[in-house]
Design goal:
Elements lengths: L27 H8 L2 H15 L28 H9 L17 H6 L1 H20 L44 H11 L2
Helix pairs in contact: 1-2
Length: about 190
């Protein structure tokens, strides 16, 4: 199945769907980056330290979003196999990947995070709708000529005529015109 490019799907203004389907716009690390809110960074660091069992510092709560290759990211972005796969395949997110339905890389994650799955399915449905709605052009694309190259006018050619058979020349006889002959006869008869 062919899907539209990443620009073809519509997201609401406040969404920024990551490769795995999470909405970066609601992620505290992304929000802290956008707003430069140190209070949010401190609260999130404390919450994530408890939830994930590691010492998370406020400086770590800073991310431009996983679909952006360059820039600051939370530590997990660099080791995330889902992100690596999506970037390697060149898709904006897994919902636009041809392997989405049976992918073993993201399958377990989507079972645990149903909202991410719902986001990806919505993106996929939107992209499929865009592809189906795209009118098919019956015209062939025009080929581009380089600025220096100009089309040469075609020379008009006439269809070749069949050669006429050569006629044998008639033998020349010494005959005088009829009027003269009639005058000659009249003189002879006198």
């Amino acid at each position: 199945m062919n899907l539209a490019p990443a620009e073809a799907y519509n997201l609401t203004i406040m969404e920024n769907i990551s490769i795995c389907g999470l909405d970066c716009a609601v992620c505290p690390a992304y929000t802290a980056h956008i707003t430069d809110d140190w209070g949010l960074r401190e609260a999130t660091a404390k919450e994530w330290s408890t939830a994930f069992g590691f010492e998370c510092k406020p400086e770590m709560i800073d991310c431009v979003g996983c679909t952006v290759v360059d820039g600051v990211h939370i530590g997990h972005c660099f080791e995330c196999v889902i992100r690596k796969c999506g970037l390697g395949r060149g898709v904006a997110n897994c919902g636009l990947c041809e392997m989405f339905g049976g992918c073993s890389i993201i399958g377990d994650f989507l079972v645990k995070v149903p909202q991410a799955k719902a986001n990806l399915e919505r993106v996929r449905a939107s992209a499929e709708t865009k592809v189906e709605a795209k009118p098919k052009s019956k015209l062939k694309p025009k080929t581009r000529l380089s600025p220096k190259a100009k089309p040469k006018p075609k020379a008009k050619t006439k269809p070749m005529a069949k050669p006429k058979p050569k006629l044998k020349p008639k033998p020349k006889t010494k005959t005088k015109p009829k009027a003269k002959r009639a005058g000659i006869k009249a003189r002879r008869s006198r």
